[in-house]
Write a structure and sequence with these properties.
The protein is built from eight helices and eight strands. By secondary structure, the protein is α/β, with parallel strands linked by helices.
Length: 233
């Protein structure tokens, strides 16, 4: 059991912390790749989709009318694992459609929902900080296997506030939440993220989940389950 004192709020990572890394890699990414051609053809006149496709055309030098060319380009970016902004935006739209149509639900470890609820009941604020966009985070928790967990959270942060391995990001998060860093606990599976949070003054705990990469050498408190993390205000 890990015990943390003098806390007002908890900030949690998603992948490798509340959820398996494999859900994102084995379910979400293949789903987006599989559905992409059909989604683009069906929704290319939707204003937000149209705007993203115009960006694809600009970045790849294709005419805006060449939908097949844009689809080929998007699939190539996926194969090359390119983090291109319009591709990420389209993946977000496709995942949203998939969640809403019930094609999958977001996997969360079984200890997560009851413990989040218990922390909230104890008066702690709950926040998410993940490299997935705020929209993706909200969909993830709204359509989870444990039900709609979205109302448990008071706020979401993504990399628009800064990188997860940068101390400054955690200073900004503490400021935005309005709670001193020392009264915030950051939960993550990545030592470099915890180091940045600790440098900003956060309390920290490393999650060891099945399927996570080895953490390497470190001196952070560790836990295999949210149920083994005791948070006192
Ligand atoms: Mg993670």
């Amino acid at each position: 059991m890990q015990e943390f004192r003098n806390l007002q709020a908890i900030v949690t990572d998603i992948e490798g912390t509340t959820s398996s890394i494999s859900f994102v890699h084995d379910v979400l990414f293949p789903y987006a790749a599989d559905k992409l051609p059909e989604f683009v053809r069906e929704h290319c006149d939707r204003p937000d989709v149209k705007e993203v496709l115009a960006e694809v055309a600009r970045e790849s030098g294709l005419p805006e009318s060449d939908r097949d060319g844009q689809i080929t380009q998007l699939l190539q970016w996926i194969r090359d694992d390119k983090k291109v902004t319009p591709l990420k935006a389209l993946q977000g739209f496709i995942w949203e459609a998939g969640y809403r149509s019930g094609d999958y639900r977001a996997y969360v470890y079984s200890d997560v929902a009851p413990q989040l609820q218990a922390w909230k009941n104890a008066g702690l604020g709950l926040y998410v900080y993940s490299s997935g966009s705020v929209l993706a985070q909200k969909l993830f928790f709204e359509f989870s296997e444990a039900g709609n967990l979205l109302p448990l959270f008071e706020g979401h942060f993504d990399t628009t506030i800064g990188g997860k391995r940068e101390c400054e990001s955690y200073r900004r998060i503490s400021e935005e939440i309005g709670v001193a860093a020392g009264q915030l606990l950051f939960l993550s599976d990545v030592v470099a993220e915890l180091a940045a949070a600790r440098e900003a003054g956060f309390q920290t705990c490393l999650l060891l989940r099945p399927g996570n990469a080895a953490a390497g050498e470190h001196d952070f408190p560790v836990s295999r389950s949210f149920a083994d993390i005791r948070c006192l205000s």
